[in-house]
Specification:
about 290 residues, 9 helices
């Protein structure tokens, strides 16, 4: 007899808070890339708990969209134009945040760059851009927050948004996978360095959380996989608020003894294995690219 499959239960509805109301009252939370997608969802959950949100992004339309979403929740928000590849712009953004709300006590390094490309086709600029934004930008932002709190002698929390292919490798995404592996290692290194000074550093890895701002490669994958829920051990995809709840917990007073940890929120999907190996399909074939030509 086949066992009935029910999957993991759905989460509480959007707007429900996992932590006590006002948990982040009086706290400024600096979120990179919070104008779209999962960054906006994470920022929204902090806002529901009373935080003042600082949104950093390069694109004016993303800043406007993020600010609209946060204001709709009744929270205070500041938008700052910032290219996180440029340390001077990060310093200016933190200066503006501090002037408006006081020193940010939480940093969420969410901004990243990514697109599928076979490694042999990848240009030097493509490699540098993804590594610069995903890894270098996260370090520069973390260093800025860390320096300010080290000088002031105050505690703080950093949440880095990673990816599960930091462990497994990411064929077709060598630039992003390498950068995310570096981000996981950076999390662990900074957690040890800065723990004595009251700064905790953790990493949050999302699974599949469909949203309107997904990159083209993820959208194409979902369109090709009509039974996507059946492809997940949970028999469903994630709801954006679930990732936000995890982020707020990691930065909350209830997680002060958690540091250097990477929390995967994906319903165990990345750990799935088959009893038999499926046929190998090269990355070029998966992308419908012909043979490589020098």
């Amino acid at each position: 007899m086949t066992q009935n499959r029910i999957g993991l239960p759905p989460p509480p509805p959007v707007g429900t808070t996992a932590l006590a109301p006002g948990t982040f009252a009086g706290t400024a939370v600096f979120v990179t890339g919070a104008g779209t997608g999962l960054g906006k969802a994470i920022a929204s959950e902090f806002a529901r708990l009373g935080a003042a949100i600082v949104i950093a992004s390069r694109k004016p339309e993303h800043l406007a969209a993020g600010a609209e979403a946060i204001r709709a929740l009744g929270a205070e928000v500041l938008t700052v134009a910032c290219d996180i590849r440029e340390p001077e712009q990060i310093t200016a953004a933190f200066d503006a945040a501090t002037e408006r709300f006081g020193r940010p006590a939480v940093l969420v390094n969410n901004a990243a760059a990514n697109f599928p490309v076979p490694a042999e086709d990848m240009s030097p600029n493509a490699w540098r851009t993804v590594v610069d934004i995903t890894l270098n930008g996260a370090f520069f932002c973390s260093r800025e927050l860390g320096r300010r709190h080290l000088a002031a002698g105050t505690p703080a929390s950093i949440v880095n948004v990673g990816a599960s292919y930091a462990w497994t490798g990411g064929p077709g995404f060598a630039h992003s996978a390498a950068a995310k592996a570096g981000l996981k290692n950076l999390t662990e290194s900074l957690a040890v360095e800065w723990g004595p000074y009251g700064i905790q550093v953790n990493c949050l890895v999302p699974g599949l959380f469909p949203h309107e701002d997904m990159t083209a490669d993820i959208q194409d994958n979902l369109e090709r996989t009509h039974d996507k829920d059946a492809c997940q051990p949970a028999l469903r995809v994630g709801q954006r608020q679930e990732l936000g709840w995890a982020a707020t917990f990691l930065a909350s007073p209830f997680a002060r003894f958690i540091s250097g940890h990477t929390l995967v929120v994906d319903g165990a999907n990345w750990q799935r294995r088959s009893l038999t190996n499926p046929p190998v399909v090269t990355i070029r074939d998966q992308m419908n690219r012909g043979p490589f030509e020098a």
